[in-house]
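[agent] plan:
  1. take the single chain provided in the ticket
  2. run structure prediction with default settings
  3. attach structure tokens to the ticket
  4. add a short note for the reviewer (M.T.)
[agent] executing step 1
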Amino acid sequence: MPRPRLALVSRLRALLGADASGVRQSLVAQCLSSSTSFVAGAFLGSITGTFTAYPGLLVLVPAAIGLRGNIFGAFGNRISTSIHSGTFRLSTRRDTVLGQNVLASMILTMGTSLLLAVAAKGGAVALGIENSISLFDLALVSIVGGLLGSTVVLACTIALTAGAVRYGWDLDNVSAPLVGVLGDVLTLPALFLATYLIGLHTLSNVLGGLLIGFSAVVLVWGWRSRLDALRRIVRESTPVLVLAGCLSALAGVVLEKSFATFDRYPSLLVLEPAHLSTGGALGGILAGRLATKMFLGTSSPGPTPDREARRDIGLLLLLAIPAYLFNGVGAQLVSSLIGADSPGMAAMVVTSLVAGMASMLLVVTMAYYSTIAAIRVGLDPDNFGIPVVSSVVDFVGAVTLIVTVAALAIA
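[agent] step 2 finished; step 3 output follows
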């Protein structure tokens, strides 16, 4: 065997061996994430009638799904940093680290769900969707769906935190993929259930008015809270979550514009949630690891990645290859089970790999530079890494999937 190949194999073994436990945790979490994202894809294809009945609702879907992962992924990153720094204790009292994070997550869920409804309505109007759902109804669906999904995700995130404390898991490796998949699986059914409130006349009007008013009030309360950590999380997270939601809404616009492609091969619609989820999850892993290491001083926020950061970037790219292979194969198998038309196994795998690795180039860039930008301006990178990466991945992932399909002449 030539020496360059031996050197490459040795470097790969050293890279994997340096954090074998973290690689195993991430791969298990990512496989679970992708597997359950196929369920979300199948569900997405089964409720097309709802999107037809309520034009403009599809624009909200990527933003609503991303919001859950953004809020609770950042939640997990902050808790992970606290655990690594030795300042964490498992208590839900309001003045503790966990207690303030729990409060912040629910405040952000309600407040940003309202703001995302406004962004989605703006996107529907800009897209020129005729007879689009009203802003009032869109806000009702967004807030109720957000609360239904977030309650379950919050409980699971707290359980993950307890497991991390007891069993020594690294939340940076498991939080983003698992929280992301929960957001994928729970958000769509929650939004679907919330649409049943539309058209109930007096009840929907009263409930909608109360929820909109309460969401605005709790967001202001969190912004002005006397609890330092809570106030900081709300103030730092709200702008970036809204910006992230607007970018994710653009992904909804891309999907709306390219719906004919998915209509010809519904298997691509099965692949789409897993494709976006994988990019966001892997980017969240990288952002979380970088934030923790830069906080602890084991990695420096320089204009180019240092050795420690390069090692994490290398691990991310290695994880991406089996993850996107798994997505292509899994989406094809699920499509066969539900009878969805597909361009074939080879085309699905190639599409997943090419579109996925193209997305990874931007994921690495965004994860690294958003983390060091937050540090340099004195902000908490745990509040920015996952929202920035996942929202950009939503948009870029939708674009790379459509471009790859067109380039391969699949549709």
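[agent] step 4 note for reviewer: Residues 1-18 have pLDDT under 50 and may be disordered.
[agent] ticket updated
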